[in-house]
Design brief:
Blueprint lengths: L1 H54 L6 H54 L1 H8 L4 H19 L1
Length: 148
């Protein structure tokens, strides 16, 4: 009884941890998307400033060219960092899904073992050669009984 309580507490803690991780993943994705938009806007603004100075538009000076260059560099850095963060978040999500699948498979195997006493007994103790032969005999007899 105490083992079940302990297992339930552990499962609840793991589910809570998984929910927190998924919330952080969503937050990370949102912030990365904002960084992409901000970086794109800075690159676009910097390009337009530089293009206006190069084309000789009115009210354009070398200061605008320098500011445009700085905007392009900062925007490019933001874009690169955001793409890296998105890739990292995707990899972490994939790892979490794999771990959850492995955990579910192990839990299912443990439940099946607990249901069948022969499997549970075989898993808990070592069997002699005679016991193994006896198990094999029971397997051979099983189809014959079903046929009758």
């Amino acid at each position: 009884m105490e083992e079940q309580k302990t297992e339930n507490k552990e499962e609840l803690q793991q589910e809570t941890t998984e929910e927190k991780n998924s919330d952080q993943g969503n937050s990370s994705t949102r912030s990365s998307l904002l960084w992409i938009f901000a970086g794109g806007y800075l690159v676009y603004t910097g390009y337009r400033l530089c293009a206006n100075v190069i084309s000789g538009a009115e009210d354009s000076s070398t200061g605008f060219l320098v500011a445009g260059g700085i905007f392009v560099v900062i925007g490019a850095v933001l874009l690169i960092m955001a793409v890296r963060n998105l890739a990292k978040a995707g990899a972490q999500k994939h790892e979490m899904e794999e771990a959850a699948a492995k955990k579910a498979a192990a839990k299912k195997a443990a439940e099946e073992t607990a249901k069948d006493p022969e499997i549970a007994a075989a898993g808990k103790k070592r069997m002699s050669i005679a016991q193994r032969a006896h198990l094999a005999e029971n397997l051979d007899d099983a189809p014959e009984e079903e046929a009758k």
